Amino acid sequence: MANLKGLLKDTAIYGASSILGRFLNYCLVPLYTYTLKSCADYGIYTDIYAQTGLLLVILTFGMETTFFRFINQQDTRTEKMKVYSTSLMMVGCVALLFALMVMVFLSPIARAEGYPEQKWYLGIMALVVAQDAIQAIIFAYLRNEHKPVRFACLKLTFIFLSVGLNIVAYVLMPRLNADWEISVKWAFCINLICTTTISLLLLKDVTGIRWIFDKTKAKAMLRYTWPMLILGIAGILNQVAGQIMLPRILEQEEGRHQLGIYEAGVKIAMIMALITQAFRYAYEPFVFGSAKDKGSKQMYAVAMKYFIVFTLFAYLCIVGYIDILQVIVGPKFREGFDVIPVVMLSEIMMGITVNLSFWYKLIDKTIYGAWFSIAGCVVLMIINMLLIPRMGYWACAIAGCAGYGTTMVLSYAVGQRKNPIDYPMKSIGLYCLLALVFFAGIQTVSNFFDNTWTRIGINTIIILIFLAIPVYEIIQKRK
């Protein structure tokens, strides 16, 4: 129980910093969607950074999770630091080599990508993602050392700096200089400045260690991590394949226009991803650190239940208060808001999949995760290819649900055979059913009442009724 309290404490710190950081980062959404000249401009930004997400997974090649697995198997501080330095050296070499190769072949890469006149967007992207890959291992080390405050401060430094510079570029400079060009290029330049700043602040976490490359550990870690690479690639494709495919299946300009609209809706739905990420930051080291504890499986089951309950509550809040949240996005982008409930459902299933995934990580059978993610990715890719020409960005939302749903079901079904955990499925199922009923109620209210504040008031009552159910359940268990 003490471990579970520690998980909740770390989750609160990671969650608070992530929520504040994401809130501040959301300030960029109105900046871009209200100031950029067209949806296609925002589509360009989305397209390139969707590819950045995929590249980051490739460059870290599952080493974050591998790092947690191996460092918690070591008995001495010296051996733990060998794992850290070996992980950092492997990822660092790959990341720096990638950045160098992109710079050497920048022009042909830009032509192949359809950005011959914006090739430096891709060059900046390469420098950013290379630094992000190296930072991923350092941040994993901070998480393992249970330093959520330092972790949170660094993350927030990035966000505050990014928001501040974006305000200068997109609000102050156009007012001070009539000839100032409002362009998406500033977003790329600012990202590079902020990422490099964080790299400098992290220097003390890499200069104060003894650099040792342990070949034996490196080989063992690579054997463990290669299925994680496959899993990661398939997993990130589940998130970004639609964004990458949309402007390449449709006519380029139309595809970028639709991508800009779709991404604006996704930004609202990403609150679900925020919750999942905050939980994962604390949950991953908690799981590996308590794997040998008696009753650990029971804690995993309880954590899963309340993770699902909390995400369902957040789901209802976002849907219920969409009239307020829509002001985040410029008017020309709001036509894609109908996909928000579908995208959020995908994020919930992704979060459940992350929690389910620890059964094969703990028994060193990560190949299962790779196969599950590949299956989900195949489903997603097929649906996107078939439906994007007919349905545009709606196909991306539908494909995401189908892909994550496939991965989730496979992970649960096989996990209950290989390493069973007694999840309270009846209780979880009941909460899912209640959330569906309340969601239908919120949708009915939205269609029936024209007055915005009337809708918000009734939706608030519906949301509070849902929240009262788990609160009542917890109170009853304590009696």
Question: How does the major sheet shape up?
Answer: none
Note the overall shape: globular
Q: Cα distance, first to last residue?
A: 17 Å
SS-derived structural category: mainly alpha
What does this structure look like?
The chain is mainly alpha-helical and 479 residues long. The protein is 84% helix and 0% strand. It has 21 helices and no strands. It has helices at residues 2-26, 28-35, 39-60, 63-71, 77-104, 106-113, 119-144, 148-176, 185-201, 204-207, 215-249, 252-269, 271-289, 296-320, 322-325, 340-356, 358-362, 367-391, 393-418, 425-448, 452-478. Helix 3 packs across helix 7. It is globular, with a radius of gyration of 22 Å. The mean pLDDT is 84.
Q: How do the helices and strands line up, and which of them pair or pack?
A:
Blueprint: H1 2-26, H2 28-35, H3 39-60, H4 63-71, H5 77-104, H6 106-113, H7 119-144, H8 148-176, H9 185-201, H10 204-207, H11 215-249, H12 252-269, H13 271-289, H14 296-320, H15 322-325, H16 340-356, H17 358-362, H18 367-391, H19 393-418, H20 425-448, H21 452-478
Quickly list its features:
mainly alpha, 479 residues, 84% helix
In short:
The protein is mostly helical and 479 residues long. The protein has helices at residues 2-26, 28-35, 39-60, 63-71, 77-104, 106-113, 119-144, 148-176, 185-201, 204-207, 215-249, 252-269, 271-289, 296-320, 322-325, 340-356, 358-362, 367-391, 393-418, 425-448, 452-478. It is 84% helix and 0% strand.
